[in-house]
Amino acid sequence: MTLVVGCAGLAVDLGTIFADRRKTQSTADLAAITAAANLNNAVNAATATVTQNNYPASALVSVQLGTYTANSAIAPQSRFVTPAVGAANAARVTLNTQTPLYFARYLTGASSYTIRTSATASSTAMASFAIGSRLLSLNGGVVNAMLGSMLGTTLSLSVMDYQALLSAKIDALDFLSALATRVNMTGVTYNTLLSGNIKVPDIIAAALATQQATNGANSATTALSTVSQAVSSLTTKITPGSLIDLGPFANLTVGQKPKLSATVSLFDLLSTVAQIANGTNQISTGINLTLPGLAKVTVLATVGERPVGSSWVALGSQGASVHTAQTRLLATIQVLGGGSVPAINLPVYVEVASGTATLNAVSCGYPNINTSQVTLGAAPGIVNAWIGGVTTANMTNFTTAPSPPPATLVTVLGVTVTGRANAYMGNTTPTNVNFSYSDIQSLNMKTVTTTNFTSSLTSSLLGNLALNVNVGPLALPIPGLGATVAGILNGVTSPVDQVLASLLATLGVSIGQADLWVMGIRCDGAVLVN
After folding, report:
1. Minimal CA–CA distance to 424: which of 464, 388, 372?
2. C-alpha to C-alpha distance for 96 and 114, rounded to whole angstroms
3. Whole-number Å distance between alpha carbons of 59 and 201
4. CA contacts within 13 A on the Cβ side of 83
5. I want to staple 377 with a disulfide (CB 3.0 to 4.6 A). Which of 17, 307, 337, 430 is the partner?
6. DSSP state of 281
7. If DSSP codes are grouped into helix, strand and coil, which group holds residue 464?
8. What pLDDT sits at residue 228?
9. From CA 428, how far away is CA 312, in angstroms rounded?
10. Helix or strand (DSSP H, E) at 244
11. Of the candidates 96, 101, 104, 102, which has an alpha carbon nearest to the alpha carbon of residue 113?
12. What span, in angstroms and rounded, lies between the C-alpha atoms of 113 and 100?
């Protein structure tokens, strides 16, 4: 009889256990997928799934939120980490259920058998986005001088050429594939390519090849070809990872394309390459302008490094971020004088800290993808501006903010006029910016402004300008000299603002503003990963 009961238990009870375990595992799988698709309300979503599958809510032992990394180099059991590193993108659900024993109870003494199952699902709500600064108005001379200095060459493109480069769009993944072909790194992962040191001429040539394949022979192709020839002899190298962060797709083999596009303009790509290639070297150039009241402008600029691990374009899930680079600019502007003042030497120093954009949320519309949206949190960089005697040493010391002495603005017959002013814009709480599906499809740019300057940077500086008239031992006082200087400077507020805006925009930043793009969104829903 014992043998008969044992055989029956093995046949009936073991079969029941396997059948119930399969059902329980299926429920755990569904609960994990539901939880991962509703990370902000994961427990309630998982509980509802469990009860809908005829299990009591108490069967749900735990719902753990964490980070899942899709990397074949990591052991499967180690790809899910809880608690989450940054923003959670996955959920692991554990269930305990009871299966009754019919015959085996006579041998084991237990009336039921506990089945414990778990499942992990990851959300695939992702977006590609970028931070930068657009050129509202192009001055060919300014852009040629600044970009040429950063690249270490001479450029002579027209405003029409730059407009064409701004309008031309290429896919970032196509560009990386062309770059891999150019430097004979096909068959490797994107991560290997992005972490390499690659010459600037090869990067520009890859962008040109991508432009030709994407848009054919047009004015942008001609303009970029001119740039490619101008930099052909350079030996400067940069790491492509400082341009593009592929996030979870970095381990794909070059040439493989995820279902998430990242479209960039040729000018933005060229400008960012130039900034990175320059390193922390000083940019020194003179610029010829035809602005009223201004004779000439000389520029000294330094572009700092972006925060470690950051880039200009990113593909990723909630928590991914991009940054601009810290930028310092000293524009020495010669202002045309009047009356007893032949000319005014106006040194304007502007420091813009790194701006940040973070992917705060990806809302996937089901079943209508057109209702999807992306939310970025943006904080423009802190701006600190001076009229004063900023030195070359101040420009390269990124560890200390300068506090310059008064600068000599005017010297007339032994009489000098010195001036000093400061204007500061503190950072505020990041501003959330929503991009609708149509914004994403149209590549609409949105700008976050947190400036607290009265009306403009120059007017804020001039409003705080303290002037001192110093009469030399052999000189005679000049009545009203200080008022004359102040009046002349107040008359060139707009031209000086234009100079500063053009110079900083070419360097990839704006005063008190951050410009944002969302270039793609991926909404596959949650998928089971373990």
Report:
1. 464
2. 7
3. 61
4. 2
5. 430
6. P
7. coil
8. 94
9. 21
10. strand 244-245
11. 101
12. 6
Looking at 339-478, which runs of residues are DSSP E strands? 341-352, 356-363, 373-379, 383-387, 407-412, 415-425, 431-436, 446-449, 466-471
DSSP-assigned letters across all residues of 140-193 = HHHHHHHHHHHHTS-----HHHHHHHHH-EEEHHHHHHHHHHHTT-TTSBHHHH
Nearest to 59 by CA among 121, 119, 120, 115: 115
pLDDT digits (tens, 9 = 90+) for 154-181: 888 888 898 899 889 999 999 999 999 9
What's the confidence (pLDDT) of residue 147? 84
Name the residue among 521, 408, 519 with its Cα closest to residue 469: 408
In this structure, what token pair is assigned to residue 518? 């969302």
Q: What is the model's pLDDT at position 139?
A: 61
Q: What pTM was estimated for this model as a whole?
A: 0.75
Max mean pLDDT range (75-79, 104-108, 405-409, 452-456): 405-409
Instruction: Output the CA torsion 483→488→492→493 (10° steps).
Output: 0
Question: Cβ(356)–Cβ(430) under 8 Å?
Answer: yes
Contact predicate 116/21, CB 8 Å: no
Token look-up 């995820």 returns 258
pLDDT digits (tens, 9 = 90+) for 369-398: 788 889 999 888 888 899 999 888 888 777
